Amino acid sequence: MDDTQFEARIEAGESIEPKDWMPERYRKQLIRMMSQHAHSEVVGMLPEGNWITRAPSLRRKIGLLSKVQDEGGHGLYLYAATETLGVSRDELIEALLDGSAKYSAMFNYPTPSWADIGAIGWLIDGAAIVNQTMLTDCSYGPYKRAMIRICKEENAHQRQGYEIVTTLARGTETQRRMAQEAVDRWYWPALTLFGPHDADSKNSDELTRWGIKRKSNDELRQWFMNRVVPQAKAIGIEFPDPGLHYDETSGDWRHGPIDWDEFRRVLAGSGPCNRDRIEARRSAHEDGAWVREAAAAYEAKRRERAA
Ligand code: FAQ
Known about the structure:
Elements: H1 3-11, H2 24-43, H3 45-49, H4 58-83, H5 89-97, H6 115-135, H7 141-169, H8 173-192, H9 204-209, H10 217-234, E1 245-247, E2 252-254, H11 260-270, H12 274-287, H13 289-306
Antiparallel strand pairs: 1-2
Helix pairs in contact: 2-4, 4-7, 6-7, 6-8, 6-10, 7-8
The structure holds Phenylacetyl coenzyme A.
Phenylacetyl coenzyme A is lined by residues 32-33, 36-37, 40-41, 44, 71, 102, 104-105, 120, 124-125, 128, 131, 192-196, 201-204, 207, 217, 267.
């Protein structure tokens, strides 16, 4: 098998499986993107986990607990899928903890009120679904299958978030204000989830050629805008975007200019919670060392008995 034959398989819509031949660069790109995705799920548990003990009712607490647990599960599927590319879980976690691997920049923002939990579910999970629905058609089998399962759960998260924001928006004046302020905090980070504009996206050409990405960053961002603007209008919430307008010609809701300097600053480590997030992951990893040791000892014993 060579590059030309591999590209013919992609062209024919075949699924690439772990034992199949693949160009080294295809493998590297998948490890980069899938591990960043796995790290995002696991770090993404932190801003919301912060509210589990303070949810305003038992029903809300159960809903949030289940959502945060789902995100941990998504991290697990994605780490397992990434391992099929010949990299170990330890190496992946090490790269997160030493800062050489990225995770979604928006998880470096804080969640100061309960309404942030609604805004994250509605806007961040809402953006993630748009991105991940596209990935259910990705050329790498294990990633595609993980995405199909994850999308089902993300849909429930998005609905739960929108319901929280709707309840607050229809509540007292203080609750309505809480909802609006949380949306003000999460609207712009949600738009950056899709990555830089197409002209500045260095990986897109390669990922698209290999059928990993099926739509561009800007196409997905536009799809997201067309979904969320009518939802915001339905509950009387406004997006903090003076440039937001309806394009009569294309029938699209267009956003105003995104502050990419802010995005790069947070990505480089200067967001409000970067240090806390990595510190929380590092101490969770250290505290969990005995579990990994016990699991490895159990497995060694099992193999010894089976031999
Ligand atoms: N944050 O050339 P491109 C979730 C980096 S899951 C940080 O356009 P690409 C669920 C990018 O890695 C959220 N870094 O890159 C949840 C690249 O850096 P590198 C995660 C970002 O790969 C909800 C550089 O910029 N979803 O939220 C970001 O073609 C609630 C240049 O960019 C996924 O990861 C960003 N926002 O496109 C969990 C989906 N954007 O590595 C808990 C899979 C870009 O070259 C609570 N990933 N960068 O140094 C993807 O679809 C793509 O990788 C993109 C980036 C779209 C993220």
